[in-house]
Amino acid sequence: MHAWPASEVPALPGKGRDLRIHDTATGGPVTLDPGPVARIYVCGITPYDATHMGHAATYNAFDLVQRVWLDTKRQVHYVQNVTDVDDPLLERANRDGQDWTELAERETSLFREDMTALRMLPPQHYIGAVEAIPGIVPLVERLRDAGAAYELDGDIYFSVESDPHFGEVSRLDAEAMRLLSAERGGDPERPGKKNPLDPMLWMAAREGEPHWDGRSLGPGRPGWHIECVAIALDHLGMGFDVQGGGSDLAFPHHEMGASHAHALTGEHPYAKAYVHAGMVALHGEKMSKSKGNLVFVSALRRQGVDPAAIRLTLLAHHYRSDWEWTDAVLDEAVERLARWRAAVSRPDGPPADALVEEVRAALADDLDAPAALRAVDRWVALQERAGGTDEGAPGVVSRTVDALLGVAL
């Protein structure tokens, strides 16, 4: 599966700062110090509907991580999946009377268009669950043969008790885990499971549903968590720098994925930091495909909204915060974009070297994009008020905003 085209990232003078970011697993900040190649895995979409603002906010956060690393003169090895076979996708296809593969291909294509418009840097490896199945099956067999998985009526379940580190990612108690498992695709009430929290690794073929050759597992399809683990281990290996996604993935998805990897490799940790973006709400409730309270990137683009304004709307909120989408927050971003573009189109301005360092410092401090925006606002206000004599300053500001914030002025 191919990703989307990369926009050029301008090189800035000097060198950026190492990223200090909030780690869900420790509950506090950690300073990341990758080697020459920083490794990041971000969980992708289940393509049964278009990209909404919740998606966009998540991918914006991890785009900033990439940009901070690139500014430190590192290379970035970024991997993202597409869950192109799963219950929600099949249910939507059945509801609408269409082929599930066509639905997945159409929505994945639209996602690529939205990411391109928003100037999100693409992953080096963009892998669909279906294409990963040949690598998933042997992992499930290994877990079963090692006693870390068991069969229940043809389905294969992972035993969470096989991982002594289970629970360290989300830091939740058993009752909270059980409630979230029921809400987020698990089946804690199924009779016969060794532990109600045990997640499915391989679902035996159901009548009328797609399935693949599972070798000794029998025909079926993979569970959600093992999909990402297989892709991440294949392309990044253990101990990669950042596992990223929305805050609703901390449990069960990232918790279970880490336990799968620990049991498979005997190594710990799966990722050095678990980083989670906040949720975006509309009319007081979290944007959700199941609730239908969505604002789509593609719909805004069709209405003529500049993608740079959409991105500025996202940047105006700290990545870990939960916030609400309104017309007012978009209007503020449209106004900000107009002021910034007017400022960098002028022939000169106040010196901008300090601004570069302010933006770097803000982003290195747990991706504080709102602080970075305020720094640019101050430079723009000073230029509007007093002008300036530095002919190179507007270009420096434009390149800084492009390289570090992903906004083309």
Polypeptide structure, described:
The chain has 409 residues and is of the alpha/beta class. The chain folds into 2 domains: 24-277, Rossmann fold, CATH 3.40.50.620; 305-405, Up-down Bundle (Four Helix Bundle (Hemerythrin (Met), subunit A)), CATH 1.20.120.640. 44% of the residues lie in helices and 15% in strands. It is built from 13 helices and 14 strands. The protein has helices spanning 53-71, 87-96, 100-117, 129-145, 174-183, 224-235, 250-265, 297-302, 307-315, 327-344, 353-364, 369-386, 393-405; strands at residues 20-23, 28-31, 37-42, 75-82, 125-128, 149-152, 155-158, 200-204, 220-222, 240-246, 271-277, 280-282, 285-286, 323-324. The strands form 4 sheets. A 5-stranded parallel beta sheet has the order 5-4-3-10-11, sandwiched between helices. Helix 4 (129-145) crosses helix 6. The radius of gyration is 22 Å and the shape is globular. The chain starts with 19 loop residues before the first strand and ends with a helix. The model has no long low-confidence stretch (mean pLDDT 96).
